[in-house]
Each structure stands twice: as structure tokens, then as C-alpha cells.
Amino acid sequence: MNTVNASTGFSGFQLKSGFSPRILPPLVPCPVVNGAEEDMALRVLRAIELDFHEAMDNMIASKIAQAHHANKSRGKEEIFDVGDQVMLSTVNCRWKYMQKKDGRVAKFMPRFDGPYEVMHAHPESSSYTLKLPDGVNVLPTFHASLLKHYEANDNDLFPSRMLSMPGPIVTEDGEEESFIDKIVDERNRGRGKQYLVRWRGYGPEHDLWRPGREMEDTEALDVWLKR
């Protein structure tokens, strides 16, 4: 209570009472003149107020100094815009995976997952809100240190990295059909709705808007309506 704080420059006792305590009481009692008690109380209140403001100034100066030294070793932070595709670090997922302590190892887990679309950007606080898949029970806002820009594969430079897309199936009538993976969005069109369909084995660039009548009696629509 009597130790001087390095950030405020005051002891807790002084900020609370307006003066530092005496180690030994005075040997001779000080006589109190009539009316002096009120003046003494006002002086104590003023001293507390001055100490409080000075402590706040010292706290601000201390935070500025801490930020200055922390920024010396901090690299340039990436900035993301709304609509950007980003990869999300799986460091927290690997940690939870290892916490089960059943002999599991996480060294073969991917370091990043995605891509995910940036829905809201708050560069002033280094936080970004992502559009995560339905059913993911986590807060969709992450620090910039957990994100990196998504770089799509150049199929001309790296053809071996290109993922093969499954072809559509052919029905007995000779029509081509693809399997629906899930519905990712919906919109109103006229008196009905349209659903943005993601096809199984295909990426977001192949999503298509399909009329609601074509989605009736599909499992994907049931899952979408129950979200």
C-alpha cells in the first residue's frame, strides 16, 4: 500500500488519502485552531485531486513508452479489405487437439485453413470478421496476426497443384447433373427465392444461383432452413 507504483509515481495510500503516512507519530500534538479543520480538509481534497491527475498523466506516459518499445520489434502488419480472401491460422485448433492428451500429434495438420471472405475490417484494432461456414461455433473475429492473404494457384506455373474437379453424372435421360454440397446464400427474386449453391468437389468460383423450385426436397435446403 505504501510502495510507490512505477507507472503512476505514487503509492496507493497517497492516492487514496492525499498524503503519505508517517512512520512515527508526532511527539508533540499540534493544536487545532477554530476553523482550521475545514481548511485542512479542503487542502487534503485538493491534494488528492492533484495526485490523481498527475497519476493519470504518468499512466499515459508509461503506456506510450511501453508501446514505443514494443513496436521496435514488431513487423509491418498486413492490411485486409472487405471482400478479400484470407487464410486462417490453425494454431488454436492444433493446441486444442493436443490438449486431449491421448498420444495425438499435430505436426501433420495444415498450418492454415480457408480461404474465407473478410466481412468486416477493423484495421485500427487489427481485427477482422470472417465469413465462416455454417455450424462453426466460434467467434468469427480474429486478430490480423492469425491471417494471411490467399494466393490462388497458378495452374500454368504449377499444373501439378491443380485439383481435379469431378465431372457431372449423366442420368438415364442423358442429362448432366452435379451433386449439391451445400447452400451458402439466398436472395429474393420476384415472388420466390434463389439459392446460391456450392457443388460437391468445386470451389466458390463455381457457385451458381438456382431457383427455389429446383431446390425443393433436397437435403441442402433442409439444412439451410434449419441454420
Automatic annotation (TrEMBL):
Record field: transmembrane: none
Species of origin: Lyophyllum shimeji
Pfam families documented for this protein: Chromo, SH3_Tf2-1
Name this polypeptide is given: Chromo domain-containing protein
Ranges for domain Chromo: 178-227
A Gene Ontology BP annotation from the UniProt entry: chromatin remodeling
